[in-house]
């Protein structure tokens, strides 16, 4: 499909000799039906991504059209950007990152080279909308690939994913969707007008076990349905001290695998991850195996700990500091992105042998294991779903790494019946989430992009949605009518003569900002109120305006913390609080356990408290210091910073679209860049690299690598030796990304210069072009 020369380069960079039979079969089927979209499903670790990459390479190299690659998480975007950079350098295309604050709307228009845009779902939506608005989508984009297509059934992100798909369908743009776990694949294929390909291939064997106290059961897959067979009694722990703290024998299961092999332990909650990591370490000590585990890659572990300290200004999590010395770590959203990244890198090279993690890792970064253990059949307080179970155990075994995988589900006797049902039942179907606020956002966006213009064209478009397949026509018609009435009432749309529906300026601002109508209404009210009494003595009031309330709801103010923080505010900061209605009387009422006055909504209090978290970071305080002071997870603080950066850009676009709000657009323009990294200006260029966080940027700068160009010229071994715990593979990828960034910038400047030269020529000179 790609030609021998390109295939040779692809296989060299991917470390493979040939395609699996199913991959060739899937590509051949797509080639036979090239005019149609494609949906394919293979179990986790089956090599799905390679098929998508081949299709994208075919598009950028031969069809000379750009591609959009949509993945679920920022971490996966950065992983894909890094892995595709080497191919881009060898084959002459570009890779552009759209995650967090990265990526321009619309993207730079290039005449000489084609790009693969790697995006999160949110940034992918913004990118698609901007290209439609500029009438560039059909001319420039040849293929859109959607990873983890089953996420269309998730709240919020699922609606956004469906929103994207409907627009692409309407403009007849080719799509490829892939997933390992969908119960109603045929419905999704029908929704996308796609050819469907499925296969049960796994590159290695997977043995499934269920452990109930000291009894071990094997899951046997027959042609009818999976069955649970009694296998044997698992090894009975003879150490009474271990039995007292670990009656389920979890530690023994981990110790059988590590440090020689890798192990993932999935836990119910963030706190449970930390407790399980400590438990495993205690069983190692009590079993008298401490020396074996501590001696394994001891120097690398010390280097890893130093790297984490650099990222956290020396304030490392005490649990991590103890467990990493044994090759054990926890991984959840309570950790910062740099901490998670370093743990993932350490696991990939065997410095960390066991990660105790939450379910998000199952659908996140590519971290396979020889053994996967489910600590309990729960995710949070909910019994685990079949799709999540399949994703978790799918991490066991991977081509080229731990090809023989095994999974253990630990449960109590009382849960045995539920577990038997879980094993036997099929994977759940996913339902459309395009309803409520998300339906209104979709309708408004379609009117803004001129994809629909009246009720009749709206009805025709709704018939192409996934929700149209999921619920009855009558129910959907009622939902759409109610959503449209709400949009008229909110004055974002109005109906003119002959049924034509037109956008108001307010509606245009919401659509351009890519926010919900509800968010747009609150934002407009806040900005109008701020026009009357904007406080520009300091940055606090402006920072309040760009604080996203969506995350403010998850950072609940603790009464004593509110009191402590409020009492430490300066007179200027207190004045901002009073302008927002937060006076001493309001704070006193809260301290007495009473609700705030009606004129001071809880929403304002929550948002101001969250804003104060950001304000401490803005003033240069370390993330860990701020997290401790406000009693929130440092991972939550890190996430707040990332979401605020993105929301600030939305607020600026909103203000740009409403003439009376133009001063806010100017005042807020500096916030996204400064919030992105919260670091000195010297380090900003280095922070543009996907794998570089603050601690690593400081190390690079001190080692003399002060620009992206200097890294592009570096030798991987040189980079590895001067940066703490930087694996050679990551060092090589870092250099490749730097080279690609330099090349992209150089070629952009070249194109600008040529365009400028052409614009300077007289019409009579055109014959010489």
Automatic annotation (TrEMBL):
Helicase ATP-binding domain segment(s): 29-200
UniProt KW Nucleotide-binding keyword: yes
Presence of keyword Nucleotide-binding: yes
Domain Helicase C-terminal: start-end pairs: 249-445
Catalyses which reaction(s): ATP + H2O = ADP + phosphate + H(+)
Signal peptide coordinates: none
Top-level taxon of the source organism: Eukaryota
InterPro entries from the UniProt entry: DEAD/DEAH_box_helicase_dom, Hel308_SKI2-like, Helicase_ATP-bd, Helicase_C-like, HTH_61, P-loop_NTPase, POLQ-like_helical
Keywords assigned: ATP-binding, Helicase, Hydrolase, Nucleotide-binding
Any matching Pfam family: DEAD
GO molecular function, one term: helicase activity
Classification via SMART domains: DEXDc, HELICc
Protein name according to UniProt: DEAD/DEAH box helicase
Organism: Nesidiocoris tenuis
């Amino acid at each position: 499909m790609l030609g021998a020369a390109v295939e040779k380069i692809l296989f060299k960079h991917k470390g493979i000799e040939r395609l699996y039979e199913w991959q060739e079969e899937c590509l051949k089927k797509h080639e036979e039906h090239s005019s149609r979209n494609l949906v394919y499903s293979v179990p986790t670790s089956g090599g799905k991504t390679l098929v998508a990459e081949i299709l994208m390479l075919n598009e950028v190299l031969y069809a000379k059209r750009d591609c959009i690659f949509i993945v679920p998480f920022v971490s996966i975007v950065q992983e894909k950007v890094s892995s595709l950079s080497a191919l881009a350098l060898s084959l002459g295309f570009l890779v552009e990152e759209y995650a967090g604050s990265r990526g321009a709307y619309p993207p730079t228009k290039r005449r000489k080279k084609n790009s693969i845009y790697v995006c999160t779902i949110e940034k992918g939506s913004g990118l698609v909308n901007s290209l439609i608005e500029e009438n560039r989508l059909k001319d420039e984009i040849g293929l859109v690939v959607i990873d983890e297509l089953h996420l269309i059934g998730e709240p919020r992100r699922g609606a956004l994913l469906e929103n994207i798909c409907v627009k692409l369908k309407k403009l007849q743009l080719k799509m490829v969707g892939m997933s390992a776990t969908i119960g109603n694949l045929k419905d999704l294929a029908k929704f996308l007008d796609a050819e469907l390909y499925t296969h049960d291939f796994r590159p290695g064997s997977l043995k499934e076990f269920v452990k109930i106290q000291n009894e071990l059961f094997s899951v046997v897959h027959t042609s009818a349905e999976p069955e649970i067979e009694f296998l044997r009694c698992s090894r009975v722990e003879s150490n009474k001290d271990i039995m007292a703290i670990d009656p389920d024998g979890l530690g023994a299961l981990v110790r059988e695998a590590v440090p020689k092999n890798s192990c993932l332990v999935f836990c119910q909650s963030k706190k449970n991850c930390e407790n399980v990591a400590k438990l495993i370490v205690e069983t190692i000590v009590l079993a008298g195996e401490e020396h074996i585990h501590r001696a394994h890659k001891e120097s690398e572990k010390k280097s890893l700990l130093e790297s984490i300290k650099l990222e956290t200004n020396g304030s490392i999590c005490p649990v991590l500091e103890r467990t990493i010395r044994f090759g054990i770590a926890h991984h959840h959203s309570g950790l910062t992105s740099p901490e998670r990244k370093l743990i993932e890198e350490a696991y990939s090279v065997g410095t960390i042998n066991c990660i105790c993690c939450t379910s998000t890792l199952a659908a996140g970064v590519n971290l396979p294991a020889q053994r996967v253990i489910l600590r309990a059949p729960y995710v949070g307080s909910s019994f685990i779903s079949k799709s999540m179970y399949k994703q978790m155990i799918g991490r066991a075994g991977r081509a080229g790494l731990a090809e023989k995988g095994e999974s253990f589900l630990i449960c109590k006797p009382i849960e045995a019946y539920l577990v038997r049902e879980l094993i036997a039942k099929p994977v759940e179907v996913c339902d459309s989430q395009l309803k409520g606020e998300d339906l209104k956002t979709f309708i408004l966006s379609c009117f803004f992009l001129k994809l629909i213009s009246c009720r009749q064209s709206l009805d025709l478009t709704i018939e192409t949605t996934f929700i149209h397949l999921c619920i009855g026509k009558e129910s959907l018609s009622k939902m759409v009518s109610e959503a449209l009435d709400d949009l008229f009432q909110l004055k974002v749309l109005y109906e003119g003569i002959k049924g034509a529906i037109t956008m108001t300026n307010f509606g245009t601002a919401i659509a351009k900002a890519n926010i919900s109508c509800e968010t747009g209404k609150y934002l407009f009210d806040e900005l109008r109120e701020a026009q009357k009494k904007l406080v520009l003595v300091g940055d606090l009031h402006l920072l309040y305006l760009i604080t996203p309330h969506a995350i403010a709801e998850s950072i609940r103010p603790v009464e004593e913390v509110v009191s402590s923080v409020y009492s430490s505010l300066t007179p200027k900061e207190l004045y901002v609080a009073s302008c927002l209605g937060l006076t001493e009387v309001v704070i006193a009422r809260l301290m007495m356990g009473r609700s705030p006055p009606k004129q001071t909504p809880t929403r304002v209090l929550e948002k101001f408290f969250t804003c104060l978290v950001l304000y401490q970071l803005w003033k240069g305080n370390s993330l860990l210091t701020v997290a401790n002071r406000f009693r929130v997870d440092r991972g939550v603080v890190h996430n707040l910073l990332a979401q605020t950066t993105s929301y600030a850009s939305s607020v600026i676009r909103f203000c740009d679209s409403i003439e009376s709000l133009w001063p806010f657009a100017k005042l807020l323009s500096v916030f996204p860049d400064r919030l992105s990294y919260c670091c000195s200006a010297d380090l900003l260029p280095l922070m543009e690299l996907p794998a570089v966080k603050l601690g690593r940027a400081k190390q690079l700068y001190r080692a003399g690598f002060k620009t992206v160009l200097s890294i592009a010229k570096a030798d991987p071994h040189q980079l590895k030796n001067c940066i703490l715990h930087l694996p050679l593979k990551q060092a090589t990828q870092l250099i490749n990304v730097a080279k690609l960034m330099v090349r992209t910038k150089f070629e952009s400047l070249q194109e600008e210069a040529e365009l400028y030269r052409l614009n300077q020529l007289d019409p009579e000179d055109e014959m010489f072009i």
